[in-house]
Design goal:
By secondary structure, this protein is α/β, with parallel strands linked by helices. It has eleven helices and ten strands. The chain has a single domain (25-261), classed as Alpha-Beta Barrel (TIM Barrel).
């Protein structure tokens, strides 16, 4: 997306307007949960999630995302504590707002917290919030995080009524749950795959909400998603990116995503 601003410039004896055009950049935040899964499978500290985060940032990623769960089956709470002071880009912590998670976020003070309605038995995130039903609960949690100076986002499906409820909670951003997009895109239904997301992003923008996206985005489908999505601030990508890095290498994979998002 191109954005044009008119700016005032001063000559020796007059003022004139100058047009300045630049590309709206979508940031890449890399979710490193799967690196922690590999570490935990063997015990010890190989691979080292701190080293991985530093490397990913050095390859150009603009953020690091972690999603600690209560059973700590991948990223652990202590990983988040160790990452907080060393992440030099934007640190995003995702999770269900249970008391231990809320305390972790307030302790580590990431740039962004993303609230996700994780079911206890879910292997991975599988639905966005019902922001209508949970509006008051979300509003209470969000007010706590915003008082601490932390940008807030809520994980949500691309449903206009849900976007409007998200705005009423006081959230700064939404993160659109993109599994349905990825599934339809893989079936060759590109236009029907993107339609609801495009409408949701436009409505969010009208309401003053920033727009993030994540879940099942990959090198196969990310370029079309970016091209078709207005006002896309950030994508959070983990499983596919780490899997693709097994074949391509981590640096090459991160740079391919950055190219697709530019």
């Amino acid at each position: 997306m191109q954005i044009t601003h008119l700016i005032l410039a001063w000559g020796d004896d007059f003022v004139f307007l100058q047009a300045q055009t630049y590309e709206f950049m979508t940031k890449l935040s890399v979710n490193i949960n799967k690196i922690a899964t590999l570490r935990n499978a063997r015990g010890g500290n190989v691979p080292d999630v701190l080293q991985a985060a530093r490397a990913i940032e050095s390859f150009g990623a603009q953020g690091i995302t972690v999603h600690p769960r209560p059973d700590e089956r991948h990223i652990r709470y202590n990983d988040a504590r160790a990452l907080a002071p060393i992440v030099s880009t934007e640190f995003n912590i995702e999770g269900k707002p249970i008391p231990s998670f809320i305390a972790l976020v307030l302790e580590t003070k990431p740039a962004q917290v993303t609230l996700v309605p994780d079911a206890d038995e879910a292997l991975t995130s599988n639905a966005g919030w019902d922001a209508i039903a949970y509006e008051q609960e979300l509003k209470a949690h969000i007010s706590v995080f915003k008082a601490a100076g932390i940008r807030t986002s809520i994980f949500i499906d691309p449903v206009l009524a849900q976007i409007e409820a998200a705005q009423r909670t006081g959230a700064d951003r939404i993160e659109l749950y993109t599994e349905n997009y990825a599934h339809k895109y893989a079936q060759g239904e590109r236009e029907s795959a993107i339609a609801a997301y495009r409408a949701a992003a436009q409505r969010a923008h009208e309401l003053g909400l920033g727009v993030n996206a994540g879940h099942d985005l990959s090198l196969d489908n990310i370029a079309y998603f970016k091209q078709q999505m207005p006002h896309l601030d950030e994508v959070s990508i983990g499983h596919a990116l780490i899997a693709e890095a097994l074949y391509l290498g981590l640096e090459t994979t991160v740079k391919k995503y950055l190219t697709a998002l530019s």
